[in-house]
UniProtKB/TrEMBL annotation:
It comes from Tripterygium wilfordii (Thunder God vine). Residues 113-303 form the Aminotransferase class V domain. The keyword Cell cycle does not apply. Signal peptide: none annotated. This is L-cysteine desulfhydrase-like. InterPro entries: Aminotrans_V_dom, PyrdxlP-dep_Trfase, PyrdxlP-dep_Trfase_major. PANTHER family: HERCYNYLCYSTEINE SULFOXIDE LYASE, L-CYSTEINE DESULFHYDRASE. Transmembrane segments: none annotated. Keywords: Pyridoxal phosphate.
Length: 477
């Protein structure tokens, strides 16, 4: 089996969309357009081009691609685990069977070339300079461990001084915060969290707090050695102005910048030349339609002296991170091999990945505004600070008063109403009374399989709870 690649190229050799974007939820059916099959010589050189016709996907075909989803559940939580269409699942099964039929042949004659093709696709999509800058790993948490492990060694070997700082956002993903604790704090680094407001109203609020954190890190002659910046925070979900924050890091002499973009590719704009970070990671199973679990880690080749290694040491140790990551022992590598198949699925939509992102954003904003109006609440961020997810305030009368209320209410919505949505607790400030302010925010997602009825179902479930006089205190009884 040889996967195909479908991309659109500009004359400059960079990937650009050649289709105009249409209004949300508009898909052309039974129409043809010339797309390009992408072939690489496996050395990171420019692709050759072959033309072929491909029909845009229809709504019924989308339903068929995701028919394995539980139809009884309004799944408006793509952000947590992503989704994988049946065509990509089939491609994954083919890779798995190829391995099981003849493992030795697969190992010696299929695996490395297949992973190299996947890396080449990612390299082009994110506008990296060279395929050697792209490694495939299990998930963004693994990528964080790779980067933070190197930071830990720098402290241990005296390259960084004890007490030098690492800066990260207060809303960094929980697993990444634990990794910072495990690798940086234990090695003697001083960790400073950027305190971000929520709800947030502008990028300037984020930029101001980030500058303050860098100043704290440089106090008493110390240096900020590492900045960990989310591209899109998970909970609460906000698009962070990464290009500006990376620029500030360069101006302030921060040694290394790591962008944790677990929700990046397929959800917002990802361009390594524009962002300018040293390291950038994004999951491919969240918004890029790959099965769990696969992510890429970009490491800027121009940087010297980064001794990066996969945390699992195997036979390829010392041959470069990309090669180390491509073999960490006998395991299922099929998720890393279906990246080209996922791209084929994406390019069946008008506008390809850019069209999907635009429609997802427009629809989730529309649905968020609908819910906020129905409940008399507010959004957690303006539309320009949202991608394919948005935070919507829940009615104060639900009395969400502690973190555990969020998980209990989420479970209640799943079990009683068939709605799957994560909930965030925003603690009241001094003087605020819980029942009079919004303390609970739902993070709704939109992906191509979602329908408007999913959000109406959520709206009606909350309205029913309000009508019944429900409060979260009842969940503790």
């Amino acid at each position: 089996m040889t996967p195909n690649y479908i991309l659109s190229l500009s004359l400059s050799g960079h990937f650009r969309l050649l289709l105009r974007l249409r209004p949300i939820n508009l898909f052309r059916s039974k129409m043809s357009s010339f797309h390009h099959h992408y072939d690489s010589d496996m050395n990171g050189t420019k692709p050759t081009i072959k033309k072929s016709k491909l029909s845009f996907i229809t709504p019924s075909e989308i339903d068929a691609q995701f028919s394995h989803h539980d139809s009884a559940v309004a799944r408006i939580n793509n952000g947590s685990f992503g989704c994988c269409p049946s065509s990509v699942i089939s491609a994954q099964n083919e890779w798995q069977l190829r391995f099981l039929r003849q493992p030795d042949d697969f190992y010696f004659n299929g695996l490395q070339d297949g992973i190299q093709r996947s890396r080449s696709v990612i390299r082009s999509l994110i506008n990296a300079d060279h395929v050697d800058e792209i490694s495939l790993v299990d998930n963004a948490t693994t990528a964080a461990a790779i980067v933070l492990q190197q930071t830990s060694w720098a402290f241990a070997e005296g390259l960084f001084r004890k007490g030098d700082a690492a800066v990260m956002l207060h809303y960094a993903y929980g697993a990444v915060k634990k990794s910072v604790e495990a690798y940086v704090t234990r090695a003697g680094g001083h960790v400073i969290e950027v305190q971000l407001p929520f709800p947030v109203t502008s990028n300037q609020e984020i930029i101001t707090e980030f500058r303050r954190a860098l100043e704290r890190g440089k106090a008493d002659g110390k240096k900020v050695r590492l900045a960990v910046i989310d591209h899109i925070t998970s909970m609460p979900s906000v698009v962070i102005p990464v290009k500006k924050l990376v620029q500030i890091c360069r101006e302030e002499g921060v040694d290394q910048v790591f962008v944790d973009a677990a929700h990046g590719i397929g959800c917002t704009d990802v361009d390594m030349q524009e962002i300018g970070a040293d390291f950038y990671t994004s999951n491919l199973h969240k918004w890029f339609f790959c099965p769990p679990s696969v992510a890429f880690l970009y490491c800027r080749k121009a940087q010297k002296g980064f001794d990066l290694h996969h945390p699992v040491v195997s036979h390829e140790y010392g041959n470069g991170l990309a090669i180390e990551s491509a073999w960490i022992g006998t395991r299922d590598y099929s998720a890393q091999l279906v990246v080209p198949s996922a791209l084929e699925f994406i390019n069946r939509f008008e506008g390809g990945i850019e069209g999907i992102k635009r429609r997802n954003h427009d629809t989730v904003v529309e649905m968020g505004q609908m819910l906020a109006k129905a409940w008399g609440t507010n959004l957690g961020a303006p539309p320009e600070l949202c991608a394919s997810m948005i935070m919507v305030g829940l009615p104060p009368c639900l009395e969400i008063s502690i973190d555990s209320d969020c998980l209990k209410l989420r479970t209640h919505l799943r079990v009683k109403f068939g709605v799957e949505v994560p909930i965030y607790f925003r603690a009241p400030k001094d003087g605020e009374i819980i029942r009079s302010i919004v303390t609970g925010y739902a993070r709704i997602s939109h992906q191509v399989y979602n329908k408007i009825e999913n959000y109406y179902k959520f709206r009606d479930a909350i309205n029913q709870l309000v009508k019944d006089g429900f409060t979260c205190k009842l969940l503790h009884e």
